[in-house]
Amino acid sequence: MKWIKDKEFIRGNVPMTKFNIRVLTLAYLNISLGDRLLDIGAGTGSVSIEGALQGARVWAIEKEEEGIELIDKNCKKFNAEINLIKGVAPKDLPDLKFSKCFIGGSGGRMEEIFKYLNANLEMDGIVCGNFITIKNLNQFINLLKEYKYKDIEVELIQSSSMDDIGLMKGSNPIFIGKGVKI
């Protein structure tokens, strides 16, 4: 399996799930051939594209016009097929069943997203989210518990990478949370 490095993606001012976090997130999602992955707050499309290249059918929702354009360009660059939705979750999401869901951004609508997932995430489906604030992480964990998810896991990742002149540059710490629907 080939993983895509951050510098290979066409970038803009829209957030992107960085390589180290993306690889771990996709591992938590346990993407398999034929999965139906929903990417909420898709940004530049890095998680969607990697998921599609691993064999998932992907639906990605993004509200920012720049994000939509970047996802489209990156899909063409990496020859990835994604069902791209310009809109807000969960209001603009299709009435489909998904086996996996990634929450990269909730826009303050985490409770509404979980109501949607209650109806649209299959049993034993996995939801995984990335969070930079403890407040959002706690809300995610509380909703996993409220909706009786199992196998709840949380990991805090802090990484640094060497730049072109040899200096280590730290990235923001990221919480990765995961649960399995029962």
From TrEMBL:
Pfam families to which the protein is assigned, alphabetical: Methyltransf_15
Keyword Transferase found: yes
The keyword Transferase is annotated on this UniProt entry: yes
Pathway(s) where this gene product acts: Cofactor biosynthesis; adenosylcobalamin biosynthesis
Coiled coil: none
UniProtKB keywords: Cobalamin biosynthesis, Methyltransferase, S-adenosyl-L-methionine, Transferase
Protein name: Precorrin-6Y C5,15-methyltransferase (Decarboxylating) subunit CbiT
Source organism of this protein record: Tissierella simiarum
